Amino acid sequence: MSIKIGIVGAGGMTGYHVAGFRRAGADIVALADVSDTAAKRAAAKHSIGRVFGSLQAMLAAMPGLDAVSIIVPNKFHAPLALQALRAGRHVFCEKPPAINAGEVRQLRDAAAKAKRVLMFNFNNRARPESYAMMNYIRGGAVGAINTCQAKWIRRAGIPGFGGWFTTKALSGGGPLIDLLHMMDLGLYFMGYPEPAYMLARTYRDHIDNKAFKGPWGIADVPRGVTDVEAAAHGFVTFKGGQAMSFQVSWAEMVQREEVSVAFQGAKAGGLVRRFFGTDGVDQTAIDACELYTLEHGRMVNRAVTVPADETMGRVRSAENFVRVVEGEEKPLNTPDEALTLMRIVDGAYKSASTRRPVTF
Ligand SMILES: NC(=O)c1ccc[n+]([C@@H]2O[C@H](COP(=O)([O-])OP(=O)(O)OC[C@H]3O[C@@H](n4cnc5c(N)ncnc54)[C@H](O)[C@@H]3O)[C@@H](O)[C@H]2O)c1
Question: What are the pocket residues of ligand 1 if the criterion is a CB atom closer than 6 Å to any ligand atom?
Answer without folding.
Answer: 8-13, 32-35, 38, 54, 71-74, 76, 94-95, 121, 123, 314
